[in-house]
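Hi all, posting the design record for the shared folder.

TITLE: backbone redesign
STEP: 1 of 1
STRUCTURE INPUT:
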């Protein structure tokens, strides 16, 4: 080996290092280029800039407010919001999307990614202060209902929520007594929040296009619910039992909890159907049962 060969050998990068580097780079490259939308994660990515801007306007981020995005995906909404806030926390389950998300957002602001299941997410990690957190998301439609119930469990921490959901679900959220869409979800959500349908979104705004219609809804938790159930777990049980068999009368559904005399005492006709009762009446029933306990 002459002097020059020796010098080159000293500075040469070991082959295994080169191969490893190539492998990592190509893997990131493949992930960045070839992420296939996954049905099981409800991945319908937003591609329409006007719709994205409309949602961001509806969220109206405040610079200092803790803000959490559920399911940021590749960052369609995240990218627009990041420059407007001090910090944005996001919860994304699909780990293959994380490098793509990081890459798309890297120079735009302070992003904290939780690679977690939103159904298990503890919002106390973001803030322990009451009515402080804003939440947004183009939610995975396959888990929207359990996710809304999960959010209701932590509702005292939440200040406002703006979500893209399946239109049919939004119809249930805003439904009033007597409407065919009025059910357990309507009662539980309307007990805790003021609900407003903001606008509908055509399926052409997504890639891939969902087979269902979509809409954006705003939910603002009451600082103090207008009608207060003294026992929340019991309220949950009453509403669950009442809607167990929609076709049956209220009397039939909740007779194990309150008899006809109890209902009549509250001026509630035992023969009406569960979807005819207001949230206030469900609270009345709950508090009457609670008193008897
Ligand atoms: N925000 C992106 C957009 O608008 O283009 C993606 C929205 S896509 C409808 C739903 C996102 O939620 C996907 O990124 C999906 O991976 C994520 N996701 C699905 N299930 C989840 C879960 N249990 N926890 C957190 N994220 C989830």
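Okay, here is what came back for every position:
SEQUENCE:
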């Amino acid at each position: 080996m002459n002097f020059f060969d020796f010098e080159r050998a000293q500075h040469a990068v070991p082959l295994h290092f080169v191969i490893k580097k190539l492998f990592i780079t190509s893997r990131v490259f493949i992930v960045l280029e070839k992420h296939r939308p996954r049905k099981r994660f409800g991945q319908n990515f937003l591609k329409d800039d006007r719709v994205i801007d409309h949602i961001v306007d509806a969220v109206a981020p405040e610079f200092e407010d803790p803000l959490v995005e559920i399911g940021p995906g590749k960052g369609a909404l995240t990218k627009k919001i990041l420059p407007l806030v001090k910090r944005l926390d996001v919860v994304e389950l699909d780990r293959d999307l994380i490098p793509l998300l990081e890459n798309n957002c890297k120079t735009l602001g302070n992003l904290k990614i939780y690679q977690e299941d939103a159904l298990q997410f503890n919002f106390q990690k973001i803030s322990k202060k009451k009515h402080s957190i804003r939440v947004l998301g183009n939610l995975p439609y396959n888990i929207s209902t359990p996710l809304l119930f999960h959010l209701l469990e932590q509702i005292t921490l939440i200040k406002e929520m703006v979500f893209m959901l399946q239109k049919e679900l939004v119809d249930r959220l805003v439904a009033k007594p007597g409407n065919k869409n009025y059910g357990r979800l309507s009662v539980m959500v309307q007990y805790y929040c003021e609900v407003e349908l903001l606008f509908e979104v055509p399926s052409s705004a997504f890639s891939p296009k969902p087979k269902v219609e979509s809409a954006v809804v705003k939910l603002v938790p009451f600082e103090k619910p207008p009608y207060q159930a003294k026992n929340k777990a019991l309220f949950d049980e009453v509403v669950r039992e009442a809607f167990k068999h929609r076709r049956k009368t209220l009397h039939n559904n909740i007779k194990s909890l309150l008899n006809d005399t109890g209902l009549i005492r509250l001026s509630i006709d035992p023969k009406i159907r569960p979807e005819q009762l207001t949230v206030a009446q469900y609270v009345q029933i709950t508090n009457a049962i609670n008193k008897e306990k």
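COMMENT: Residues 251 and 270 are 5 Å apart (CA to CA).
Let me know if anyone wants the other runs.
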